[in-house]
Amino acid sequence: MMRSGRYWIILSVLLVLSLGCAETNSQVKKVQTADAHFKLGIYYLENGNYKQAISEFCKAVDMNPNESDYHFSLGTAYSLDGQDGRAIDELRAALKLNPKNSEAHNNLGYIYAKRQQWPEAVAEFKAALANPDYARAYSAHLNLAQAYTQQGNLDASHEEYKRALNLKPDSEVARAGLGRVYRLKGEIDMAIEEWEKALKINDRQIGLHYDLGFAYLNKGEKGKAEAAFKKVIDLDPESPLAAEAKKQLEALKR
User: Fold this and answer.
1) What is the CATH number that goes with domain 1-99?
2) C-alpha span between 231 and 209 (Å, rounded)
3) Based on the number of CB atoms within 10 Å of its own CB, is 87 exposed (0-12), middle (13-18) or buried (19 or more)?
4) pLDDT tops 80 at residue 142
5) What whole-number distance in Å separates Cα of residue 216 and Cα of residue 181?
């Protein structure tokens, strides 16, 4: 009887251990399957198939809802697919799981900027930049500068464009934005200087040539204005800006 009793005790322990292993194996398999869906979603996302990416990311989230990267990627896919409301929900879920996800803050700010919710956009861009290790700080500084410009906070916008340029001196986007800030502040010479630098980096910015033409007109430099408007027409003769540039050239001849 003693041997029989010991046998049942050992058998019950083995059964418990066996069930425990089965449960652990099931959990591991679930995590692995979720990760497979996630990786497939990344593939679809990188190839521009946003709806299929959303489908795969949703499966990953359903199987492992505590993974911040899954929510972040799903939010990104929703945003690219034009589903901003759902994107906001998923990005916030990602941040709840990982508050230091600066990319999620930056993406949230971008969505709020699209909606012209400037205070919310500014708050998110600043939150992204609160992380000193954020690899894409240049992007957040640029976004924050543009949001400040929309709010009319030109001094703050100026500082953010400068910070962006410190990180990427060859950014024609930051140069162009800084020039627009100078123009809004009435500092035409400084605006022209920045726009000329931007065009040295990328000469095919039609809108910038157009703005430069008006800046030269304001200074009374008609020859340079004419050259800028002609450049607009040369770059894209059928564009609406080219049509406006032609009108300006006609006016200069009078």
Assistant:
1) 1.25.40.10
2) 7
3) buried
4) yes
5) 16
pLDDT of residue 53: 95
Look up residue 80 and give its amino acid. L
Q: Which residues contact 185 (CB under 8 A, 6 or more apart)?
A: 154, 158
Report yes or no: 143 and 109 within 8 Å, Cβ to Cβ: yes
CA distance 95 to 102: 9
Burial class (CB within 10 angstroms; exposed 0-12, middle 13-18, buried 19+) of 139: buried
Residues 158/147, Cβ–Cβ less than 8 Å: no
For the record, the structure tokens of 195 come out as 């726009």
For residue 41, pLDDT over 70 is answered with yes
Start-to-end C-alpha separation, the chain: 119
Please compute, for residue 40, the number of CA atoms within 13 A of its CA located in the half-sphere on the CB side. 15
d(CA 89, CA 86): 5
The domains of the chain are located at 1-99
Q: Give the predicted TM-score (pTM) of the model.
A: 0.82
What are the structure tokens assigned to 138, written together?
Answer: 């240049």
The pLDDT value recorded for residue 28 is 77
Cα–Cα distance for residue pair 177/179, rounded to 1 Å: 5
Taking 70 as the threshold, does the pLDDT of residue 23 lie above it?
no
Q: Is 95 a residue whose pLDDT tops 60?
A: yes
Confidence band of 15 (pLDDT split at 50, 70, 90): low
